[in-house]
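User: Could you walk me through two proteins back to back? I'd like the raw sequence and the structure tokens for each, with a short line separating them so I can tell where one ends and the next begins.

Assistant: Of course. Protein one, sequence then structure:
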Amino acid sequence: MYSAKMNQRNVGPYKIYQKLFTSPIKDDIVIRVTTWEGFKMACIFPKDFLWGTATAAYQIEGAWNKNGKGLSIWDLFCEKTGAVKNGDNGHTACDHYHRYKEDIALMKKLEIKAYRFSVAWTRILPNGTGEVNNKGIEFYNNLIDELIKNGIEPVMTMYHWDLPAELHYRGGWLNPKIADYFEEYAKVIAENFTDRVKKIITINEPLCIIGLGYAEGIHAPGLKLSQREYLKCAHNLLVAHGKAARALKKYGAKDVQVGIAPNMDNFYPLDENNITDINAATDKMFEIEHQNPRAWINHVNWWLDPVVKGYYPIEGKVEYDNILPADYEKDIKDIGGTVDFICFNLYFGIPVTTDNNGAAVIAELNAAKTQMGWNVTPDAIKWAAKFLYERYNMPIYVSENGMACHDTVSLDGKVHDPNRVDYLNRYLLKLGEAIDEGADVRGYFVWSFMDNFEWAEGYDPRFGIVYVDYKTQKRIIKDSGYWYAKVIETGGKSLCD
């Protein structure tokens, strides 16, 4: 149940009033906020708060077969007819491989303090194992050095979905040896980059990796496995994280910190003044649904309980012991206690209330939607931070949050994206409330720095705070980019302007 200690930093009674915002997302949206004093406190972020932005290698780098880079499962998947909208692929993407200095200069202009990027596994280990590609090492060394030169902290993600094709042919995440290959990869990362990169995220969104790639088949590698098989994949992924985390500590700099970045079904109380709704949302956030292991991997405790606490959720073990890998218990020693911080990626959430019997039920929601069709629900980020901190008591980073829009270049040559500004403003205010109420949130990364290849959706959705003309590769800072620069400059105070 929800603990009262989370409210220990409140600045007075938690009274609710209504404040009208003129919204470019939806007219006359009403936001419920705290007292004005509480509202102002939500705009005051810690002085050392890490204001960042994020991308992923396959989505921006291009140079898919240059300088020794090997093939990934996304190179293969994009070749399948109908797999990706418009037949798009990441062969060129944003050409960041050749334009990283230009992109970093834009980050500096926007006063970005940290850049979360992913390494293309096949750029440094073309086959996923074996011989190291020195040209790949050189590229990431140059990228890291350029970031540091411009006062931007590099935050690295080891795996953002682009599994080496050769390892896929060997069974991919179904093969238990994948954990050893990932450990080998981590050793290369540790020995080459941790003298300058101090925060490393092993795996991004394991739910999407397994759920979309191995259960539903709508992402690479496009498989539709049985429950037993995709839960085996999920277990192998966790073992891989554990072995990689230990390798980063063993072979890397002593001060390197390791995390993991799950996404999940995000539940929040319909009425945040109602303790019954709060407890119902907590239960939904961490529940193990009866006879629904697909839903199990949607809940964050599948991913974080093992790496933080050293065991799978008890309810899950009881419910699904018969289809979990036979020897999963012996692997826990490799999985448990392997993170220094936790991350979460969040775009939308699901409101929860209770019925007449006190049971948790999903509340009806009439919310504005993004280009992706995702509900705009700022409360979700506040309660995700609070729930995760309450359960795991570890430093937290929001590793992704952002909005896809139908962005275009206006006649004045600029890109005006008021919907995104409004969206980010709302979510950051709610994140500020979570911090004020005791959640140890230490950083926030806008997704994404620039428009990019959005996986199966191709290039249609635009998430960036920087616009990319894919034909010319011209970059244009959007209004949201300049807005975010002001937020960073003021330490969040401009959110309340």
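----
Protein two, same layout:
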Amino acid sequence: MTEDKASGGEVWLVGAGCGEGLLTLEGKRVLARAHTVLYDALVPPEVLQEAGPDAELLPVGKRSGHHSMAQEAINCLLIQKAREGKRVARLKGGDSFVFGRGGEEALALQEAGIPWHVVPGVSSAIAVPEHFGIPVTHRGLARSFTVVTGHTRDGQDEDWKALARLQGTLVFLMGLERLETICRRLVEEGKNPDTPAAVLCGGYGPLEIRIDGTLNDLPERARQQGAFAPAVILVGPAAGLGLHPAPAGKTGKILVTGTPSFCREATGELERAGMEATAMPLLEVEPLFQNIPEDFARYPWLVFTSRNGVRLFFQWLRDMKKDFRLLGKLRFACIGEGTARELADQGFRADLVPDSFTAQSLGQALGKAMEPQERCLLLRAEEGSPDLLRELEKAGKAYRDVAVYRIRSLENQTENRQRLSPRVMIFGSSKGVHAFFRQFGLSPETRVLCIGPVTARAALEEGCCRVESARTHTVAGIRAVLEEEGEQPWVIFR
């Protein structure tokens, strides 16, 4: 990689592949040297671990039905970061130029005079069918394959007559919502209704479903078997070969769900301890920068209840080009060690961390530490725990509660909830618990482990019979439970 030019930074459009282990060596090298990484929702959390420890990670959340940032805003952010002299990695699932809008971003960068590069990625159009044992080409059955988007922004329909005449394999991406239309229109234009077809759901993820059928019955089979996005649709004789590769051996794994950042932190911690863990992010963080008050320095105390709150506040400071010397006389309160470490990574030490990492304990500690006339500024999630406010009011302390971000569920609506059977299921928040059980069921044999008592109570509400909570409400505390060293480092809820 070349060094930054004096006039500014550069941008790399990096394809992350469509699953754990499919990031290329070049992509890994670029991520390791990037100052800033803009990543999409479908990027595997394991891939983000390849970024350097000081890299700025910015989720832009592009996902069908859950766009947290418009494409034009992403283009502007890429240009802005490059003009700050940074090496920027634009990280996308699959390949940037295969329905990834990489071309649109390249045009915007080029028009702005920003140098840009492309690192190809392994597209789901090929990788997912291969993963499930379906070759997109096969001698005597398919001499070609055609990749088609399942939906278009402008509403223009496909040339179904031309697609129906093709003799190779048709690969539809992002088309699950239109599965019935796809099958019906191909038959209407002359495709044999008995043509083999398949829906491949969740390829390379912790949850995978292969649904086989024909153009005639595939939509009904997909409804009955609970098809979910992301999914790849295959049409053609090669889909009927009946090839089934040996399972990858994911049974018995530890499954982690929550936000991408929590999944990344938890799986990294467990894997460093020699445990096999798989991430299944079902939540995303949406910044609410417009809520942060310009007069934040008027508050003697800044209070953070999560690592996300710290990260986003300091991102806002940088984006708004605020003078960090404004923070010199302020004091910081953090709910726990993880939040305090995030603050330390930003160059500031926490003045207050309660002994017990709960909202209630934080409120009680603040009530004792604050002077009578002082006010504190709470920088936290939109649906923050009321326990913190309750304790501050009980102590007669003034506060301003500001939502720095909200947590949104990345939900796939299915008629049938599939039951999962990991050896251990790890939840990082109560919202993550509820998001999971809106989509899936859990085997009674699965060991349920939660980061704290609030999350544990949510798991009990969802019908889990035996739920454990780490005594230390951190990722390290979760690891200690699984290692079971010394005295029991957990609390059991029934």
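The first helix runs from residue 25 to 33.

Let me know if you want the two compared in more detail.
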